[in-house]
Amino acid sequence: LFSSGFQVAPETKAVMKWLRSIPFVLSASLHGGELVVTYPYDYSRHPMEEKMFSPTPDEKVFKMLAKAYADAHPVMSDRSELRCGGNFVKRGGIINGAEWYSFTGGMADFNYLHTNCFEVTVEVGCEKFPLEEELFTIWHENKGALLNYMEMVHRGIKGIVSDKFGNPIKNARISVRGIQHDVTTGN
Known about the structure:
Blueprint: H1 10-21, E1 26-31, E2 34-39, H2 59-72, E3 94-96, H3 97-100, H4 107-114, E4 118-125, H5 132-151, E5 173-176, E6 179-184
Parallel strand pairs: 1-4, 2-3
Antiparallel strand pairs: 2-4, 5-6
């Protein structure tokens, strides 16, 4: 991911620097062209394999986050296979990114591997480039789901890692037994 031959745009570098400087824990990237929520990994564990399920050690958390969005979206939660995004109905409106299609250099994978931030990608509608008059409907279809997703930031363990004097410890490594992915404390 982000190997030496990969060109990183200046705005992407700026976002990467920003993500490393502030201890974000949750984010979403909004795209158009389908109606589904994808979660890491987006890059297949076996680069020559297309559509290969590539879970992170936090697969259960990512599925919960993706479902929090999809279940609160009025169209994604619609069980009709004839609707926009209907091919994801049997999956509950969510899919592992690499299982849908594998690509390298995605921000969700970067965030998971290099920051404490868990990111999903939300395909907000089947039109890649919606018309201006469609934006109001798209916003209203996604507003509640976005708010529901943002509330997920309150799930999990919260607290302060401190030394014996009560001083916060910056960059302390937090490990959870059974999950091969550590996070670090912020400031």
